[in-house]
Amino acid sequence: MNKSDRGEGSLSYIGVVLLMGAIVAGVLSSDVSGAIARGCEDAICRLTGGDCSKNQPQARNRGSGGGMEIDPLLKTRPGGSLDNFLPRPPIPKPTCNPDPGARWAEGLHAHNDYDNENPLDDALDNGATSVEADVVIDLDGQLSIKHDTNGKSQGSLKKLYIDPLMELAKKNGGQIYPGRDPSKPFQLVIELKEPQLETGKHHKWPTDEEARKKILDQRRLDAYWAAVRQTEILRTRYPNVQVVFSGGTPKDIVVGQPDPLTGKVPKNVFYDISPGKNCTLPPQVDPHAPRLPTDPPYNPSYAKNFVTLNGKWSECGDRNGDGKVSDEEQRKLNEIVQQAHAAGLKVRIWGGPDDKDRFHFKPYPEKFIPCFYGRRCHSRSRETAWQAQRDAGVDYLNTNHLTIGSDWIRHCRTKAPEPTPKPTSSAKPPQHPEHKPTHQPEPKPGPSPRP
Fold first, then answer.
1. Rounded to the nearest 5 degrees, what angle is found at the Cα of 163, between the Cα atoms of 121 and 154?
2. Cβ partners under 8 Å of residue 8, min gap 6
3. Are 139 and 196 spatial neighbours (Cβ–Cβ below 8 Å)?
4. Phi, psi dihedrals of residue 209, rounded to the nearest 5°
């Protein structure tokens, strides 16, 4: 190559850079999505060999649902395909087609599945396509299935869920239910509860509050990474089984960060995200949201790590707590579900009426007990909530009662009509006069008259 050729290459290179700069300027001054503009900026940054870390947005989210305190600092790695700069495809609204003999009940979510007599098995027998396991890291570093930090363990995460799911997936060609649409993964939802801590007179806790907080944060990180490592083979060998951490990740976990023990970047690890105030879609996962200057930017490579919007019934459905769903409440529920679907998120609603409740205290931790929370205890309130969610297009039916939930889905049950109220009237009933006999009483028998 001669000198003139090298000069021509340099000029062409500079020309390309200037051209792309002009394109970015035009995009920024137009109404084209800011996500595409940021993608172009990032591409130019990498092309010129600059420091692109400042272009990577940060976002924080605090989950809900009684799990451990979370405050994830979720960043994204620079680079990747064009998919990192484009919003995800929308989620279609689910439809219900009656199929009583179906092997699975599409969208049935086994809430606190470990409380069933046969964890996982009962869920699968009823066709659940999503199961939830609460996990606590014990003092010995084991991941135990339990609802409360110091409660009774139902077993280990590995033995109750990971190993059986791997065995099923291996047997069924990678799927839990053979023949089910492979684009619809089976979800194992893991909610990390507060870790168990050493107590007792022989254990000396630091007196400094900040030092105590660091110990607790480290235990949370230990639980998260332990769950990531235990699910690695399940996630990577059988990607049709989707592992979802409920409530986000512990503080300081970075999406795309290598495991500090193995040095590997976890694959196929997903999260759900909680709605914002008044059950709104967080702007950092909503490409269509109008943005204030204080709102975090939409970042597709951040948003793609979230697969489910996990909302609370009292905030997204029955907002006034009267056990009914008004037209306005239904409209708002429809709206948030539509927004989530447009952003590529499925929707699950927790905390709704579900008739009898679980009893999480000794001596009967796995039993159902009568419900003591008024309207939310009645089966009619449950049907009202389930019907409203179906009408809105909620993707997962969250319930403790798997047989009833499976029947609702497989038969496309609908809410029974409200009973017709008995007519009431303030008018007094007509007064009838006292009945008086019109016939004369027969004479009493006496002696026969003489002839």
1. 60
2. none
3. yes
4. -65, -40
pTM, full prediction: 0.73
What residue ranges do the domains of the chain occupy? 7-55, 82-410
CA distance 19 to 21: 5
Kindly report the CATH number that applies to the domain delimited by 82-410: 3.20.20.190
Backbone phi and psi for residue 284, each to the nearest 5 degrees, phi listed first: -70, -10
Q: How many CA atoms lie within 13 A of 385 on its CB side?
A: 32
Look up residue 80 and give its two tokens: 């990747």
Please, are residues 222 and 249 in contact by the beta-carbon 8 Å criterion?
no
Contact 305, 257 (CB under 8 A): no
In one letter, which amino acid is 74? L
Report the interhelical angle of 34-47 vs 3-28 (nearest 10°): 160
Q: CA separation (Å) from 397 to 257, 268, 281, 372, 387?
A: 33, 23, 20, 22, 10
Per-residue pLDDT reduced to its tens digit, 128-170 = 999 999 999 998 889 999 988 888 889 999 999 999 999 999 9
The predicted-structure confidence for 367-422, as pLDDT tens digits, reads as follows 544 544 555 455 688 999 999 999 999 999 999 999 999 999 999 998 766 556 65
Q: Nearest to residue 56, comparing CAs of 321, 202, 257, 192? A: 257
Report how far residue 390's alpha carbon sits from residue 381's, in angstroms, rounded to the nearest whole number.
14
Residue pair 378/366 in contact by the 8 Å Cβ criterion? no
Q: Residue 109 and residue 93: Cα distance in Å, rounded? A: 17
